[in-house]
């Protein structure tokens, strides 16, 4: 994917008053890494940034009720469906790989299908959730029954909110053309054997 000029430039140090503290809250504790371009772009609107952080942190934090690997399947698939390579690539490195998503599974989130053999039934169900919400903005009765068999109601709510949140993030990344982090993964190439 060719590099594009961002439509809104991420803030650069030295930051305005309060921005450095706000950016530190978005990064992992004690992180010495430069704040992500996405976060530095959001910092252009500090009030909006402060309102967004609690939901994002809640989805990824210890209080979440959905298993992290299942959460990441929803996030990766949603980012792929929205074409948000930036966020997909950051999550692949920061969460997907460390949580054990295989190269085949990561590839499937971009070019595959929930019925791919790399997915266990519970994983396929959350993958389908991302697909159906993206395609229809609702869930079929069949998928709802499958979700209800595997998850508590609070978890289903969290899965739906996660998919919606990463639509917001995908729209943001794409709309303002956040440039990929140098260390993040790019979308994998399609498998020529599958064509």
A few lines on this structure:
With about 200 residues, the protein is an all-alpha fold.
Please provide a written account of the structure:
Helices cover 58% and strands 0% of the residues. The chain has 9 helices and no strands. It has helices at residues 19-26, 37-42, 46-60, 68-81, 85-96, 103-111, 121-136, 141-150, 153-176. Helix 4 (68-81) runs antiparallel to helix 5 (85-96) and helix 4 packs parallel to helix 7 (121-136). The longest helix has 24 residues, at 153-176. The two termini are 20 Å apart.
Structural class by sheet pairing and helices: mainly alpha
CATH class division of one domain: Mainly Alpha
Main sheet characteristics: none
Can you say what the CATH homologous superfamily of one domain is? AhpD-like
The topology string of helices and strands comes to HHHHHHHHH
In DSSP terms (H or I, runs of 4 or more residues), the helix count works out at: 9
**Within the CATH hierarchy, at the fold level, what is the topology of one domain?**
AhpD-like
Query: What is the architecture of one domain at the second tier of CATH?
Result: Up-down Bundle
Number of strands: 0
Distance between the termini: 20 Å
Whole-angstrom Rg: 17 Å
What is the overall silhouette? globular
Give the overall pLDDT as a whole number: 95
Strand fraction equals under 5%
Helix content: 55-70%
Q: Are there runs of 5+ residues with pLDDT below 50, and where?
A: none
């Amino acid at each position: 994917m060719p590099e594009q000029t961002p439509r809104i430039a991420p803030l650069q140090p030295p930051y305005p008053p309060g921005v450095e503290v706000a950016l530190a809250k978005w990064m992992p504790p004690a992180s010495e890494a430069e704040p992500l371009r996405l976060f530095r772009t959001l910092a252009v609107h500090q009030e909006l940034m402060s309102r967004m952080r609690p939901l994002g942190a809640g989805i990824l934090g210890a209080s979440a009720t959905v298993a992290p690997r299942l959460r990441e399947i929803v996030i990766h698939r949603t980012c792929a469906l929205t074409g948000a390579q930036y966020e997909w690539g950051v999550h692949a490195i920061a969460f997907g790989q460390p949580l054990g998503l295989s190269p085949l599974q990561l590839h499937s989130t971009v070019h595959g299908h929930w019925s791919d053999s790399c997915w266990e039934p519970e994983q396929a169900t959350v993958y389908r959730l991302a697909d159906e919400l993206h395609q229809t903005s609702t869930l079929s009765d069949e998928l709802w029954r499958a979700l209800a068999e595997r998850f508590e109601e609070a978890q289903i709510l969290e899965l739906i909110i996660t998919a919606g949140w990463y639509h917001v993030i995908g729209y943001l990344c794409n709309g303002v053309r956040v440039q990929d982090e140098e260390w993040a993964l790019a979308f994998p190439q399609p498998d020529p054997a599958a064509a």
